[in-house]
Amino acid sequence: MPTDPAPLADLKVLVVEDEVLLAMDLEMMLEDAGCQVVGPAHSLDDGVRLAKEAELDAALLDLNLTEGRSDAVADALAARGAPWLFLTGHTREQLPDRHRDAPLLSKPFRADGLVEALSKLLGKTGR
Asked: Which segments of 27-125 are extended strands (E)?
C-alpha cells in the first residue's frame, strides 16, 4: 500500500532559535514533515547571514533571541521575498510595527500545528 508523502517534502526551512533544545525539537518536527532544516541559527548574526545567503523556501524565527529580537532576520527575509513566521509566546501587538502582519505561531505548539502553519504560509493544502 503506498504511503502518503511527508506534507512538506523537500522544503528547505531556516530555523532561527537560540535555545538549543527548542531548536532540536523544531528540527525533529520539520524532518518528520519531510523538510530539510537550514541551520539552525542560534544567534542573531548567524540568522541574518543565513537569511541573506542560504537556499531556503521558508523560515521560522524565534522573536526573542539572546542578543535581542529577530527583526533584522525578518528584514533580510522580506528583502529577498522569502516567507517566514514568528515563533513566540508574545502577542501580535508585541511584534515590530513593520512586521505586525507577519504570520505568528504561538508557543507552545505541537508538530501538527507547526506543519499546518507552514503549509498555510506556503499555500499548501493537506488532504
From this structure: 36-41, 58-62, 64-65, 68-69, 84-88, 104-106
